[in-house]
Amino acid sequence: MSIRPRAVACLSLFLPFVLPMPIAAQDVVQLEQTESEPLAPPPQALQTGDEETWLYEGSDIPVDREWLFGEMDNGLRYAVRHNGVPPGQVAIRIRIDAGSLHERNKERGFAHFLEHLLFRESKYLGPGEAIPMWQRLGATFGSDTNAETSFTHTVYKLDLPNASPEKVAESFKLLSGMVREPKLTQSNLAAELPIVLAEKRERGGAGERAAEQTRTTLFAGQRLAERLPIGTPETLSGATPETLQEFHRRWYRPENTVISVAGDIDPMLFAGLIEKWFGDWQAEGKHVEAPDFGDPVAPKGAKSSNPVGETAVIVEPDLPRSFTYGVMRPWRPVVDTIEYNEGLLVDAIAQALINRRLEARARAGGEYLYAQVQQDDISRSADATFVSFAPLGGDWQGALDDVRGVIADALKTPPSDEEIAREIAEFDVVFQSSVEQASVQSGAELADNIVEAVDIRETTASPETVLQVFRGMTEKITPARVLEHTRALFDGTVIRGAYLTPDASEAKPATVRTALLKKVTADENARLAASTISFADLPPIGEPGEVVARQPTGLFGIEQIQFANGVKALLWAHGSEPGRVSVNVRFGSGFQAFDAADGPYINLAQGALVGSGIGELGQEEIDRITTGRKMGFDFEVDEGAFVFSAQTRKEDLADQLYLFAAKLDMPRWDPNPVQRNIAAARIAYESYETNPGGVLSRDLEYLLRDKDTRFATPTPQTLAGLTPEGFRETWEPVLAEGPVEVIIFGDFDADAAVADLSRTFGALEPREVDADLEASEIAFPAAQEAPTVLTHRGDPDQAAAVVAWPSGGGVDDLRLSRQLEILTQLFNNRLLEAMRERSGASYAPNVSSNWPTDVDSGGRITAFAQLKPEDVPIFFEEADRIAAELASTPVEADELARVTEPLRQLINRASTANQFWLYQLEGATRDPRLIGLTRSLMADYSRTTPEAMQALAARFLDPAKEYKIAVIPEGQQLSTRRPEVQTGR
Fold this sequence. Notes:
Blueprint: E1 68-71, E2 77-82, E3 90-96, H1 110-120, H2 130-136, E4 145-149, E5 154-160, H3 165-180, H4 186-203, H5 206-218, H6 233-237, H7 241-251, E6 257-263, H8 267-278, E7 308-315, E8 322-329, H9 338-363, E9 368-378, E10 382-391, H10 396-412, H11 417-436, H12 443-455, H13 463-473, H14 479-489, E11 494-501, H15 509-517, E12 547-552, E13 559-563, E14 568-573, E15 581-587, H16 599-611, H17 619-625, E16 634-637, E17 642-648, H18 653-665, H19 671-685, H20 692-704, H21 716-720, H22 724-735, E18 740-746, H23 750-759, E19 788-792, E20 799-806, H24 814-838, E21 846-850, E22 860-867, H25 872-888, H26 893-910, H27 914-921, H28 929-933, H29 937-942, H30 946-956, E23 963-969
Parallel strand pairs: 2-6, 7-11, 14-18, 19-23
Antiparallel strand pairs: 1-2, 3-5, 3-6, 4-5, 8-10, 8-11, 9-10, 12-13, 13-14, 15-17, 15-18, 16-17, 20-22, 20-23, 21-22
Helix pairs in contact: 1-4, 3-8, 9-10, 9-14, 11-13, 16-19, 16-22, 18-23, 24-25, 25-30
């Protein structure tokens, strides 16, 4: 049933244009037939009436009747439903019940290798035709068209935009050819092998080694310990067409296949197409049962409960310390009943209680930076309760005692009724929000839910069912029952643990084992205060402000409000996303407000500023006051503004606005969050040099901003000199200065929101605005004679390369910046072909465009790839060649269409969400031109000419302005040879 609450992913695309509403049931595109022949015959395998559906066999969970289920004679099962979010899209998932745990020793990596080969060539798609074909259908490769291989399955994913019945029919034909009849030829293997090996190389390094050793320890003796989906170089290189065909024949069978489809077309068409293209699929040979994945086993001779088994000390000099131990139990299939899910909910409450106590202990000065308890069923291999934490320093045993002390108290004493009520309220708001937002749940998410349910061998349920089950059992969540479930969570077959440290002298496996066996004293101080806090008890911001202007913007129903104190707001109240309200507060001048010396304190703000609290409320009190509420508090620093943002609902909007306004009016300066974030930054810095990506995350912005120290990552030496007092001196003045813009879009009452704004942001004292503040130019570095070379201390076969060109910023040329997005996508397709498809030098190169709108400079075009050190010159040469060709020769019409059509569809889908509009109109109260410029969005992103692209390339991809960065292993030299691998052009 998957009743456990999940984090809701927030979409973050940037291309809104129109706002089509979700299609109602009566508007569903009906099954379309031509005069000569229907696209698909009527489905015959649907499970209708009182017939038990395959997903709910033996379960008393109410069937989600939005889904239609079918099971064909050959064993293939499917689930289909209508969904109009985003309008016109169809999400298709094809799951094969075979992952890396199904591989034999000589087949390690075959499941993933086969996933790649299915995209290489198949019955209806020639060599290399898959990506261009999906692009012509409007799907973006890598996001709309993708696949994944896990330990237990392989899933092929297609999110088809603007999906007519004919496009869906063609897609099922192509997908059936891929799954049923891939072309596993020697030439295809030879072409794809370097790409798979590049993917393995790019994932490698210290972090991957540490994770692999941890997994080997926790799952000792099980297949999970030694079968990463990526495989090994030896087995991958030893693959032949015959051995891969054998793997395909053994596992790619109809009885191992589940297809889920959710989209904006009559689901009867989906069912008919599945039966048409997969109904005659007959597997070769006898069915093969999945291998035994193995169980966690206690040490020989163990007599006590919870014996400590395998332990490990993992030494990686460049990684921060962390400790993980697991209470391991065998995994067994369950009958997914309401009673079973009620038990899961009590488990979840128990874990939430412990995690809240652990966080409070860390905030109060514990020996660890963070700690978490999490039960999980891992790859049908173990039912485990994991405990993980990061020691603040070398005293890992003190940190372990701290963490275990908190857990020991939870195992000794029942929680209070107030603590339980707090967690119930938190869960309730999550489930209630899911009900409110069910009508805008995307088809892709729904299709994925079926895949996940099949993978964990459970069912799926509607949000209404989940909420009903939860509210129907809350009276059963008593202190005694929570204590019982807490004890069960920490009772297992064996306990295993691994300590990751940069210093080999700190511990040995025997030391870790002894520490886990040590009796600990229950930390009774970990229990949290039960007192409640109400927003009604908080002081007002000030006298409610006067509205001096309220008028329509001329764009949809968006109106602009201005208060007497200068605060401006954009409001758009509409119900197309029920239960969702997006709030965005922009204020001040962002990076422009700081001097070069402020850089280290800027870096700390994302974690420390919000955590410092407001007024008399620290982070713990804010957590309590927002219990059972849908509220948030994200913070970021942009080039020309600071931003608070949150997703909330109309019931909580007034208090959400109070939190944001109070941060400006009465900021609290608690030193603990500052010190904690200094410690976190110091720990993180140690790991930057473990791989090329880490080096770039540390230095790229600094280098591409011409070594502007505001964008530098502070070193441990710099961090050692930072203080809470210095943090306050840096941030207190900038919180009090600059104009304020509030944007509220979503399902709320506009008049009530204006009143709420009057009592919060309208009640602020007029803010000082420095009219003489000149925006400092965000500079781009001068071109160099040779690339800037950085080094890392990771694997000797890992490197990265970057080529960047300056572009611009601001609103004046905003339409031009949208055209640059087309250019960069053209560049990206060519670079992908050159580096991934032709040479196999890099798994996934990327080209992107960044154009800030709140300042007039700082934009750039950036090309990036991770590759082998010897291939860095290839990347530079290919990037220069592609840039020169784009500037000298107009692109072909088909190549241009394969970029503009996916962008057009991306805009259509993006336009259905408030978030996209909000991002597009950020800063519109400062520069009203942004409102008018939304009207040209579709044209700007999707209409152009080959000649226009050539002119843009000539202007912006100037070799005299490019800046190159290479990240290579420490001790190596950057090769200056010309590339040996040629593109054949």
